[in-house]
Amino acid sequence: MSDTLERVRKIVIEQLDADPDKVTEKASFIDDLGADSLDTVELVMAFEEEFDVEIPDDAAEHIQTVGDAVKFIDEKLGA
Amino acid sequence: MRRVVITGLGLVTPLGTGVDHVWKKLLDGQSGIRPITNFDTEGYGCTIAGEVPAVDGRGGGSPDQPGMFDFDKVLSPKERKRVDDFIVFAMAAADEALADANWKPETDEDQEATGVMVGSGIGGLGPIADTAIVLKEQGPRRVSPFFIPSALINLASGQISIRHGLKGPNHSVVTACATGAHAIGDAARMIALGDADVMVAGGAESSVVPIGIAGFLACKALCTAYNDTPEKASRPYDRGHAGFIMGEGAGVMVLEEYEHAKARGAKIYAEVVGYGMSGDAYHITAPSEDGDGGLRAMKMALKRAGMEPSDLDYVNAHGTSTMADWIELKAIERLVGDHAKDLTVSSTKSMTGHLLGAAGAIECVFSVLAIKDQMVPPTINLDDPEHETPIDLVPHKGKAKKVDVAMSNSFGFGGTNAAVIFKKVD
Predict the structure, then answer these.
(1) What does the pLDDT look like over B81-92, one tens digit per residue?
(2) CA nearest B138 in A: which residue?
(3) Model-level ipTM above the cut of 0.95
(4) Per the database record, which ranges form the Carrier domain (chain A) (predicted)?
C-alpha cells in the first residue's frame, strides 16, 4: 500500500467516521462511505492541508473515490 | 381558536440536564454559577457563568455526578462538527421533551402535523468568531463547509426536524432575551390556528464564549463584582445586585392541540391560555423607567386568557439581577393592585443565570412545573431587599403554594417583551 493511500485513508476514516474495512481504493465517498456534498468539500480541504497541495474546484469535482484522491495527489506531487 | 396544552418538557441548564434533576435543585435553591471552563478568562472582567455541567469536565461536571450533559450521547463526533453547542443543547432538550410526551410521529399525516419552533438569541457566536480568525489568517479557502449550517439560528429547528421526521411548520424566533417565550407563544398560536397539531418549541443558547462575554461586558450588562463567590453573583431584588450572569443551555416544550392530546391519552401538564407581546420603542438595551412595555405585554396576555390580574398565582419574572428588576416588579404591582399581597413572584435566574434566548423557554418550563407540583421556586441570594414590596419573592428556598395560573415574563434588548400564561387543566 502506497504512503499516499495510507494517509488518504486515515483522513477519510477520521473525517467520515467510516468503517476502516470499507475505505478501499474503489470506495466512493458519497455512494459507499455516507458522505454528503459538504463532507466532500471538507475532505478536499483536509487533503490540501495534509499534502500541502492546492486542489482547484474543477479538479475536486472529479475526486469521488479514495483512488481518485490518491491519483490526483500523486500526480501533483510528481510521485 | 383551538386549545393548546403542554405534553412534554426538556431541559439542559447550568443546574444540570433533565427536568426532574433540574427542578429538584431549583426548589432547593442551588446555584449553577461557577468559574468559566469554556475558555481562559485571563483579562476578562467577568470570569464566571452558568455553563452546562458535562461529563467531559465542562462547567465543573464529571462522569460520576447525576444530571451531567454528554455530547457523545446526542451526536457522533462526525455529526458534532456540523453544529454549534446551542444546537446540541436544543436537540438534547427536544429529545427529552418528545420522549416525555411519548410522541413519535411515523405516518405522513402525523409528521406533517408536527412542527418545530426553537429560537436562539445569538446562535453560533463561537463558530462565527473562530471562523473569522481562520478567514483572516488562512484565507477564504480554509473556511469550513460546516461553518454556516453550524451557526445559523434556525438550524436548531432544522436539526430537530431532521432527527425526528417532523415535517410541519419549521420556524425560529430571534428576539434576544425574549426568544424562548416568544417561540412558545408563537408556536401555541400556530396550533390554535390549525397550522399544526403538535409543536416542539423553545430556545437554546451557547454564548459563554470569549466574544460573547467580551461583548456583554462592553454593554455594561454583566456582573463583575462576584468573581470569587460565583454562587452569590446572581441576586435579583437584592441591594447587592451588580449585573447579570450569563448562562447556557436549552428549554423545549411539546405543545399539542387539546383534543389531539386527549385522544391519544397523553399526560397533560398545563394549558397555554395567554400570550402578550409589546415593544418599548425606547432604548436599545434599557427598559423604559416606568416598565410600560412589560406591563402592556402582561395586560395583553391576561386579555387573551380572558383573566383578571387577581387570577395570577405565580409569576416567573424576567429578573436578571440588574436595575431593571424593580422596574418589572413595580409594573407587576401596578398590574395586580391589591392582589400583590397574595401573589408570588420569583427570579429563577438567581440560580441558572441568564440564558439569553433560552431563558424564556426554561422559565416557561419552570412555570409549568410550578403548576404540576404546586411548588414555587425561590429567588436565591435575596438577603437584603433593595425596596419594599407586598409581593412574596420566595427568598432562598422553594415552597408549596396553590398554583393554578402562572405567568412567565421575558424582555429583550431592542425593547421587545413577552408574557406567557399557563393554567392548570382539570
Answers:
(1) 889 999 999 999
(2) A49
(3) no
(4) 2-77
